[in-house]
């Protein structure tokens, strides 16, 4: 994208309201302080600063994500969460035994598979770690001084576990099993994280794949009365009618934020994006990459965010790029109450 005239010399503040840290073997994970976070974007026609809200999704990425807030809490706001793709790694009972039998019982209870897939299940059990008790995990890791948001949390109806038991940020394509996490277990984990959001009055960043109605019902019953809790539906792909008739009508535009990514909203669901913008008040708009910020090129992340801003500017018929970046920044501040 080429900028012209005065815009070329401006510095734009971009917002990545939903991004990630990679999940990989510890020895491969980058050190937070080794990365030059705001590089001069050499060779590009613009200067940018990015404000990021970084999600945590499991017990491994959390260890790096929490360091980001300790390193620079202006640039990084961090979220504490358990993503549905990792929800099976957590147990919700009061069973503390670490026997193999206990591990097997846990995964039998939370994973969904057919009897013909018993062999596949047995292989998975071998590679899966012993489950962590979710309440212990929260007690020992959640830190209200560092955390600005609860996320990534939510439900996913279609994902399948990789054969190694959980997603890692590997460059190799991961082979998928036919085994899924039961919806009732995903719901339990979601509800426990919503308890945390309610207890500390923290906004939530929500993952919703093919579960639009269920998530809406859960959020309505749990947090409608908690008027200070803001909701970000990240990379939302439900219909404009659903958004308008449910979230905007019931929660009101002050509490709902839709965060748009280049990857999901523009490249894969452009029609839905255009329809949503017809019903979505400007105050509800956020931007995101949904990418891992430690393993992706920071210049490319900035380019992607600028692309989303540029498209928003066009569809909303705004005058300048600054109009949209300022709007998104204002919305980001409102979402996180910062
Ligand atoms: Zn995400």
TrEMBL record:
MF terms (GO), sorted A to Z: hydrolase activity, acting on ester bonds; metal ion binding
Chain residues that bind a divalent metal cation 1: 152, 290
Top-rank taxon, per record: Eukaryota
Keyword Cell division among record annotations: no
Record carries keyword Ribosomal protein: no
Residues reported in the UniProt entry to bind a divalent metal cation 2: 207, 234
Protein name as annotated: Amidohydrolase-related domain-containing protein
Organism the protein comes from: Henningerozyma blattae (strain ATCC 34711 / CBS 6284 / DSM 70876 / NBRC 10599 / NRRL Y-10934 / UCD 77-7)
Gene coding for it: TBLA0B03060
């Amino acid at each position: 994208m080429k900028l012209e005239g005065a815009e070329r010399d401006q510095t734009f503040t971009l917002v990545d309201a939903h991004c990630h840290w990679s999940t990989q073997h510890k020895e491969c994970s980058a050190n937070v302080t080794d990365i030059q976070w705001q590089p001069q974007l050499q060779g590009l026609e613009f200067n940018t600063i990015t404000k990021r809200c970084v999600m945590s999704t499991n017990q491994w990425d959390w260890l790096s994500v929490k360091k980001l807030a300790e390193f620079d809490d202006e640039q990084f706001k961090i979220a504490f969460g358990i993503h549905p793709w990792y929800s099976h790694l957590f147990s919700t009972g009061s069973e503390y035994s670490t026997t193999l039998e206990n591990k097997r019982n846990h995964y039998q209870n939370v994973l969904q598979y057919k009897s013909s897939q018993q062999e596949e299940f047995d292989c998975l059990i071998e590679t899966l770690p012993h489950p962590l008790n979710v309440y212990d995990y929260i007690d020992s890791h959640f830190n209200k001084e560092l955390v600005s948001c609860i996320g990534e949390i939510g439900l996913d109806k279609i994902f399948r576990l990789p054969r190694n038991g959980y997603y890692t940020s590997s460059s190799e394509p991961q082979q998928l099993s036919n085994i899924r996490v039961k919806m009732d277990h995903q719901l339990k984990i979601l509800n426990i994280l919503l308890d945390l959001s309610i207890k500390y009055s923290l906004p939530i960043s929500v993952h919703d794949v093919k579960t639009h109605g269920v998530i809406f019902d859960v959020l309505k019953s749990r947090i409608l009365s908690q008027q200070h809790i803001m909701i970000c539906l990240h990379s939302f792909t439900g219909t404009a009618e659903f958004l308008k008739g449910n979230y905007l009508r019931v929660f009101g535009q002050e509490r709902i934020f839709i965060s748009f990514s280049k990857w999901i909203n523009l490249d894969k669901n452009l029609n839905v994006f255009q329809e949503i913008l017809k019903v979505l008040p400007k105050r509800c708009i956020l931007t995101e990459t949904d990418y891992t910020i430690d393993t992706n090129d920071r210049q490319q992340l900035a380019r992607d965010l600028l692309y989303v801003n540029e498209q928003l500017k066009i569809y909303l018929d705004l005058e300048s790029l600054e109009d949209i970046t300022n709007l998104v920044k204002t919305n980001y501040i409102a979402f996180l109450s910062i």
